[in-house]
Specification:
The structure is a homodimer. By secondary structure, chain A is α/β, with parallel strands linked by helices. Helices cover 42% and strands 21% of the residues of chain A. The first copy, chain A, contains 14 helices and 16 strands. In chain A, the strands form four sheets. A seven-stranded parallel β-sheet of chain A has the order 10-9-11-8-7-12-13. The first copy, chain A, has a four-stranded parallel β-sheet with strand order 5-4-3-6, with helices on both faces. In chain A, strands 1-2-16 form a three-stranded antiparallel β-sheet, with no helix packed on it. In chain A, helix 2 packs antiparallel against helix 5, helix 2 crosses helix 7 and helix 3 packs antiparallel against helix 7. Chains A and B meet through strand 2, helix 10, helix 14, strand 13 and strand 16 of A and strand 2, helix 10, helix 14, strand 13 and strand 16 of B. Strand 13 of chain A pairs parallel with strand 16 of chain B, so a sheet runs across the interface.
């Protein structure tokens, strides 16, 4: 494992010097090779699926593991999209003059070696490799052991194309170990690995944080809120709430708690409750909500902390925006919150004072996503504040160094 | 300890909402109060110094512990300087439109709660508090136990002024514990503390990283290099090398290894060696250096890794810039490197390909410093790449959130 990490570190030095056209051609060739070797990939995947079925893997997990011809197409298309994105490495983000004549700038450079720890989802193998390569980073991939054959088939293709381009194969390495202990060992190698991105449930992330000497991007939970203000366009609010809750209830940027200003409660709550119920959503309300809608299930204290990831919604009537913001501060997960309002002052204050990673005015929480926000890609979402906060694109796979142009300056 | 961290978290929420004028007045009042209570501070410091002397603290450490009237003045002046700096919180670093009409921006917000772990240097107590308050963060200060009385005296003044401004006293807390175990406990509280900045030697930092569940800014070493290229202004190069090595040899941005292109070795090495020797520097050379200057001590493999922090310099003759860059990659610490050259192409390539936190052309390594680079302040220097790389100013005590202005957008 140390040898894998050591070689990744060496490969990273080469990648950091590799110019954009070479990286882009590499990605396009990987796309072509994945299409060409689709049969081989699907065979490997079939072996994984067969074993997983025997072992009784639940259907939702099996669905994520199973690859079809259209998955191969979308992997290849994804590589082509990443090739078309701008290269973050080498970008000068700012530059200024000092009184002594020094010109000081900040230049983006790759982080170095990135470790991705994920579940049995073979598409992550290719997506993560593409983003790391594009930004000039080497990557070590440790996916769920149930997908090992699929991951190795994909990893071999990537390494084959790397070799063809005279780039080090260690730039992309799939850990061929089924053992979970391999992860624990990997997480000690802070001399060689710069960042760990775990992609999976809260338990996985907590376990990684507990063991790691390497910095970890944490995506804990998405307990996302919408606050419906006193002055609001109810038709628009209704459409946004429905979209945020029901368009894809199983993902982290779906709505989990609806907060409604008391001045709107009697008119808006019956409206939204009936539409949500028609869409199959179960509502759990606070006492004030249930005074208006007595048939609704009661929400317990625990409900305010819940990330349902399901067609369930907690609803609370609040006195005003201050109480809404206090609720978010106490129960929220720093992921995504939205205010729906006609009030300029309230929109401005909510945006300024709510410090979650994405804060929206008059739009669905579902936009908290790297592609939707315009990052061009998404390697993950961070719900803690260090290095990156919120959806992460290619820039978040870089750091900046200071560059200084002098003409003989010394310090006095 | 948990209670301290919990209160800091609450105070951070208030500070994040506190507008710049209030924060600036607070800092100016702390400055005034420190001047007014100078007698009290110096008395507390005298008690610390007396105990430390009895226990046989080495003179260099005693010097850092001991405060004089001029130290009080410079603490107060430092607070005034920080008050005059721009407030990073609330700054919009970029903004763009999406095809669906959403306007997306990134806004700087405070990190939240910052823990500073440092040695027996009372000035850090005030400097760190000033930068954290200015950027809207709460801070927990754990200084060396030998400075506890001084730190508590300073902390009490800050809290007194916070109270006077109706701000939570928990915004700045000095840990009154002399026990090192308190640190270990603090480092587990990732629910409340966002970032740990240790300021001290490599051992302190490694110990903190080993224990911490909270992200840590790491400042390992400054093995700084100057590479003297084939085409160079020797007079200028001489002045820069002397400055980088001798102006303050005990600090992390001082020169530790000099690399000289072989085409320059026979002319430049005797020149620089004699001037450095006259300034009291001991030189340790590679074999090729010692062919030109046989009286020089030999450098061992170990010397290339050394951060001397002293009037000692390792010297190596290299075939060309490639070999110089390979040397830096192998032995360097990612802190600061400079090239001295007249070649446009080499300057450009060195700046692009050397990925240390500060890379300079034709200037002294001593400029790798928050004030000198124009950050207005310095809370530390990071030699690893996550969150911050190189000297850290107020911006590095913030993160960015996404803000999104919509007019009814939903995802389809």
């Amino acid at each position: 494992m140390t040898e894998i990490a050591r070689q990744a570190r060496q490969a990273a030095a080469t990648l950091a010097r590799t110019p954009r056209p070479v990286k882009d051609r590499l990605l396009l060739d990987i796309a072509a090779e994945i299409r060409r070797q689709a049969g081989l990939i699907l065979e490997a995947n079939n072996r994984d699926v067969a074993v997983a079925e025997q072992k009784g893997m639940p259907p939702t997990m099996l669905n994520r593991l199973r690859m079809k011809t259209q998955n191969i197409d979308s992997l290849a298309a994804g590589l082509q999209e990443v090739a078309a994105l701008p290269d973050p490495a080498g970008e000068i983000t700012s530059m200024w003059e000092r009184p002594n004549g020094l010109t000081v700038g900040k230049m983006r450079i790759p982080l170095g070696v990135i470790g991705i720890i994920y579940e049995a989802r073979p598409n992550v193998t290719v997506d993560a490799a593409a983003l790391c390569l594009k930004s000039g980073n080497a990557v070590i991939l440790k996916g769920g052991s149930e997908a090992l054959e699929s991951n190795l088939a994909l990893g071999n293709i990537v390494q084959e194309v790397l070799r063809r381009h005279d780039l080090p194969q260690a730039a992309v390495q799939v850990i061929a170990e089924r053992d979970r202990a391999a992860v624990g060992f990997l997480l000690q190698l802070d001399e060689y690995i710069d960042l760990i991105i775990p992609r999976g449930g809260v338990e996985l992330i907590r376990a990684v944080v507990g063991q790691s000497r390497i910095p970890v991007i944490k995506h804990y939970q998405g307990v996302c809120h919408i606050y419906v203000d006193a002055e609001v366009d109810e038709t628009e609010a209704l459409r946004i709430c429905l979209n945020a809750k029901t368009q894809r209830p199983e993902v982290c940027n779906a709505l989990e708690t609806l907060l409604v200003h008391e001045a709107r409660a009697s008119s808006f709550l019956p409206l939204v409750a009936s539409e949500l119920a028609a869409a199959g959503v179960t509502l759990r309300g606070c006492e004030r909500t249930r005074k208006i809608l007595p048939a609704m299930e009661p929400a317990s204290e625990d409900d305010w902390f819940r990330e349902y990831l399901d067609l369930i919604l907690a609803v609370r009537v609040v006195d005003d925006m201050d109480q809404a913001m206090k609720h978010i501060e106490k129960y929220g997960s720093l992921h995504t919150e939205a205010i729906l309002t006609k009030s300029y002052a309230n929109a401005r204050r909510f945006l300024r004072e709510v410090n979650s990673s994405t804060v929206l005015v008059n739009a669905s929480t579902r936009f908290s996503d790297g592609f939707e926000l315009g990052l061009g890609a998404e390697i993950g979402i961070s719900t803690t504040k260090l290095h990156a906060f919120g959806p992460m694109g290619l820039n978040e796979l870089t750091t900046t160094k200071f560059i200084v142009y002098g003409n003989g300056q010394v310090r006095t």
